[in-house]
Structure formats: C-alpha cells, structure tokens
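Q&A log
Question type: sequence-to-structure
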Amino acid sequence: MAFGAFVAASLLNLCLQKWIGYQAIALVYLLAVMLLALFVGRGPILFGTALTAVGWSYLFAPPRYSFHIASSYDKMMFATYFVVALTIGELTTRLRAKRDAEIKTRLLAESERLGRTLLNSVSHELRTPIAAITSAIGGLRDSGTCTPVQQKLAAEIESASARLNRVVQSLLSAARIQSGQ
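Response status: OK
Response body:
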C-alpha cells in the first residue's frame, strides 16, 4: 500500500508540477502519507514516509534526478517533512489503536450485559414450571389417594424439583453477584 500511495502521489505530482512548484509537491506527498496512515500500521507509514521523501528529493527538488539537495531551505524542508510525516503517522496509528480498544471494551461490556440478561431470563423462566411441579406434587400428596408406588414417585419428583430449584437459585445468585447486587 505504501508503494502504491507513493506511485499515485508521484503521478499526481508529475501532472501538477507545472502549476504548484516543487515545494508544494512535498505537501501532496505529505497528504499521501497522511491518507496512508489512516489504513496501515507504523511499518508501512515509515516506509511510505521514506519513499516519498526520497522521491521528492530525486524527482522534484533541484538538481532533479539526483539525491543531492542543493539549498539549505530544501534541506530544512526535507528534514521537516520527515518529522511531520512520521508524527502524523504515529498519531494516526495511536488514534486507530485507541478506537479499536474502545470498540473492544464496548463489545465486551455489551456481551457481559447480554449474558446477565439471558441468565436472569432463563432463571426466572425456569422458576415458574418448577413452582407448578412442586405445587402439583404437594396437592397430589395431600389428597391422600396415592398408592405407595405413587407416593414413592411423588417423593422422587419432589426431590428432583427441589434440586432443580436450588440450581436456579444458584444461577440467580450468580447473576445478582455479577450485577453488583
């Protein structure tokens, strides 16, 4: 991407050089580095910065087609360009990393909230049928019309519903602890 940005900016600069002069061409290169920084990391930005700085020196700064920079003004511009381009690249990379971290934090918080909501919902939805089972078994036992086998089965159902109720209570307690209640 860095090489592609350099080639695109160089072609644009070759077209614009008659109208803007070789000093302003550095600003077009700087814009290319800034746009590149929006999409890539530190390594490609460093490579793109070096490539555009050398490209400006070789293709546009007098004497053209050499790596020699004649005037002290151009040397200062070359150094300043390097510092500004690297700074923009670094700041943009940091901002992108911060944004990514914030997005991950929000997603994690939302995921935890949805998990707690699901846990609460499932726990409450399970309590209703357990209460109905427990009530029905109690009514059946209290009716006094059960055979000994039915009494034994009712006791097992009552025991199983009590265990299930304890599991649901544990889930509700865990949900309350997680939500800070």
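Response note: The CA atoms of residues 160 and 176 lie 24 Å apart.
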